[in-house]
Design a protein that fits this description.
4 copies of one chain form a homotetramer. Chain A is α/β, with parallel strands linked by helices and about 290 residues long. The first copy, chain A, folds into 2 domains: about 160 residues, Rossmann fold; about 120 residues, N-(1-d-carboxylethyl)-l-norvaline Dehydrogenase, domain 2 (Orthogonal Bundle). Chain A is about 55% helix and about 15% strand. Chain A has a 6-stranded parallel sheet with strand order 3-2-1-4-5-6, sandwiched between helices. In chain A, strands 7-8-9 form a 3-stranded mixed sheet. In chain A, helix 9 packs across helix 11 and helix 9 packs across helix 13. The longest helix of chain A is centred in the middle third of the chain and has 30 residues. The radius of gyration of chain A is 20 Å and the shape is elongated. Chain A starts with a strand and ends in a 5-residue tail after the last helix. Chains in contact: A-B, A-C, A-D, B-C, B-D, C-D. At the A-B interface, strand 9, helix 9, helix 10, helix 11 and helix 12 of A face strand 9, helix 9, helix 10, helix 11 and helix 12 of B.
Chain lengths: ~290, ~290, ~290, ~290
């Protein structure tokens, strides 16, 4: 298929590369043109000077930007009108359901299907084509573009209507934030009381309070004081704020998710744009005046 | 060894039975005498009419009551004075560190060692001798009584000074409460938005937000609407309140653990004494006006 | 001036009546036509069959509906286009800034000014013309329509750009909710400890923790168990949710305002549509199992 | 009466001076002896070298220390035994009910009455004898020592049993913390949206969300950026933690009071020991990246 790919960020690049290598005819666009030019040298890949040029003649359009607002902005300025009727837009942005619904409604007027399809699995998963892809939208549309998604995704889950993919991704991130913070609170208090974090984790990880955070993130990243920068806190903050917004829009009292959102935002302000998401633990450590190590 | 066992509740009974079967000379006491008499018929087990009679001549005393306050109350009325100098008391109650420290200090005046040793693993783990036992106290004392603990425990972890076992247990429970509530908030909001809980869990359980709650409790107990009564919410409430107290005593700001404690308490009031801990999800469902199924 | 008034609710009616009595030429519209007809009998007041008919030829349009979404909906269906260029719309709805800004932008395209102007002071204030009116929008536009606002408002405050009136109103309501809940928590805990609420309030109201809630609402409405239905909790819930949304949109971590929003929502679900806002105290009483009386 | 006064801190000194000037025969003790010697020069005041010497022969003992734990510590080491049977101890410390009850029980064994009597009104109120005094304990005992309390207190309120005075004081402080933080959140968000704080306060202070914080503290101390150091945040933190403890002990779910306690503790860590309580607003400003001025 002819695929247009808009947004060659850290995750977008390896995804686009896998699409090209799967035999699809790829045209890319990126806001910073040099990044697109560098990327295109990787193979038989066309570079479009504008989004409008990229989408013209494409059977499938893939967007992978920072926020749904960025997607909406790129689609304005004539792109909506330039997309070929009957095609499908796959939005791999970690977006928000409300904006995705608005974009989908505008595309529907041009008979273009919209699939929100945020991914999880990181850069490594993108390179290896093992991403989990959470999809929202019509089942038929998803089936038509499944070959493109399969180029980079291994577990492809149809979550529900437009926005459902965004929503599942956001809620997963909220649970990630909750378990990092909660485990951090527990381990800082235990450290002050005289329990070594590795001993506490040995118990918790064979008991009912265990989570991905306690089983993987704390042993590998916190106790080692490595805090590798794999996923920016700034992005987790954005994701958890989307989760909090969804709970509000759906009128579900959600005191923990709401509090998690504010804890992410204040940690983001405290630790800056480059901090990794797991570094939030440092805020708890400063407040509690003890280290988890 | 001569072992006195005080408190034959749901967990205490199979623990005491395993101690007897391991060849120790067992004397039991229970507030409701009939329960002790029934239990003693299981084998060569003595029943003591009072705690004082039970502890006299024992090498090791095991207590397994509802709260540390219950332990302190039983030990008053002459029991402190009746315990043989040089022996050890193992308290398997899910207790609180402050009371455990106070009991330990009083016992120390009689040259009796104290080990707080709450367990996890449920009735099944007690019957099979596969409990995890979280121990606080002197390493020497723990070594001396390890043969008794090994009768019912498989994973025996020395967590730190007196109270450390209580503290680790309480914090594990707080994380259990946090993950049940957080996952509940997420799934109720997603259900209202149109995402089926099993689909959401399929994604979350292969992503970073997964926990014991999302991987086991929700699929087996909530989505099935089975809500089996395996561990009372009333007890989880007590445990999480201990966790919240520890964080306050250690002066660790812990907004999530504190909020979890209040969510457990209000759910406990709403659902009553017999409700299982996982039934807390029903409170979120009522507030959010959607079911997780 | 020729004034069109859309929305004859409990507050809208006395406001509209005061506008008519101040000598303005009034045309009213209400979704339920009978209410408009009944109202018109009060004097020389015209009834319009549709919003479009109401706004045609008006110099000033006043809207007073439940939510900003209601205002937007009424303005669709040709009303935007029917409004005379150069006129001003005063929206007395307790609205949300984001929707107000969107409405203002659409009106600006027709050269119509927009003032968000939510009020406080209740039905009594509307009848007596003593409302506080919080205005957002251009100062010039506000000056032009001040004579209409003065018909029902005594304290008219220009708060800032479009949405600023909505925002100040919403934040006031969030502080109202916070002080009702916080004072409720304090008095329920004190009651259980043995302090009579009137004694606690005697101290608090001469000390630093006092608020409108502690000085007026609790003595007059809670301790008397009167709970008069003056302002529905459903409306407070809506307002505090707007406040929480504003804090999120402005990226201000606001754990108390967010929590207040969820406490209002869950109380609203628990107590139903007709409950008064002060009845939230009953939820705290049930959770805490003590009464404030 | 012969009055022993233990603890000549910022508030204690002017209180003791007023007792002496009211004609009572005063003996003082202070941990730092020089402070007691300096104070005694003010008049016909005796200085005792130890607490035991101070209380011997006193009809009434007044303690005014930092915490209930400090009171308990001073009373140990023979002081309990040195107090004359039939006398009364008035504890003006901002204490906690649990420790006060424990002290009272020990004093009761010596037939000494205990009144917890924390004060509000600051140094100025102490100097002018206009303090509010919140009393817990037996009504008879309070009547007997009322002449001493009247030397420094104007509004003397009998709140309930032992601990009731502590509890009312603590809850007032929790409401103070809640209104400072809540108003801070509201004003920071409004400032970012474009509403000047003095305009927002003008509206709020004539509406339902007003409190002592919004009417007095913000206009006088925050908007002026004066932040005078009148009452240390470290002390407010201690007080609100007592309030949170009371709510937990009374099993009253109290999410706002609990959150307020953690917000005070983290602000205390962030701003240091010397910060004034109103400076907490600076934490909200840093998180929200806008100033209230």
């Amino acid at each position: 298929m002819r695929v247009a790919f808009l947004g060659l960020g850290a995750i977008g690049r390896p995804m686009a590369l896998r699409i090209a290598r799967a035999g699809h005819q790829l045209t890319v666009w990126n806001r910073t043109a040099k990044r697109a030019d560098d990327f295109a040298r990787a193979g038989d890949i066309a570079v479009a000077p504008t989004p409008m040029d990229a989408v013209r003649d494409a059977d499938v359009i893939v967007t992978c930007l920072s926020t749904s607002a960025d997607v909406e902005e790129v689609l304005n300025d004539g792109v909506f009108e330039a997309i070929t009727h009957g095609t499908t837009l796959i939005d791999c942005t970690s977006g928000d359901p409300a904006t995705s619904r608005r974009i989908a409604a505008r595309l529907a007027a041009w008979n273009v299907a919209f699939i929100d399809a945020p991914v999880s699995g990181g850069v490594k998963g993108a390179e290896e084509g093992t991403l989990t892809v959470m999809c929202g939208g019509e089942a038929d549309a998803l089936e038509r573009v499944r070959p493109v998604i399969e180029a980079f995704g291994k577990k492809i889950v149809h979550c529900g209507p437009v926005g459902a993919g965004d929503a599942v991704k956001a809620m997963n991130q909220a649970l990630l934030a909750l378990t990092i913070w909660g485990t951090g609170e527990a381990l800082v208090a235990l450290a002050k009381l005289g329990v070594a974090p590795q001993v506490a984790l040995e118990v918790i990880n064979s008991s009912s309070g265990r989570s991905n955070a306690s089983m993987n993130l704390f042993p590998e990243r916190v106790l080692t004081r490595a805090f590798p920068r794999t996923f920016r806190l700034a992005l987790l903050d954005k994701d958890v704020r989307i989760a909090a917004q969804i709970a509000r829009d759906e009128k579900v009292p959600s005191p923990l998710v709401q509090l998690a959102a504010d804890l992410c935002t204040l940690s983001h302000v405290d630790l800056g744009e480059e901090a990794d998401h797991v570094e939030m633990v440092k805020v708890i450590e400063r407040w509690g005046q003890a280290e988890v190590q």
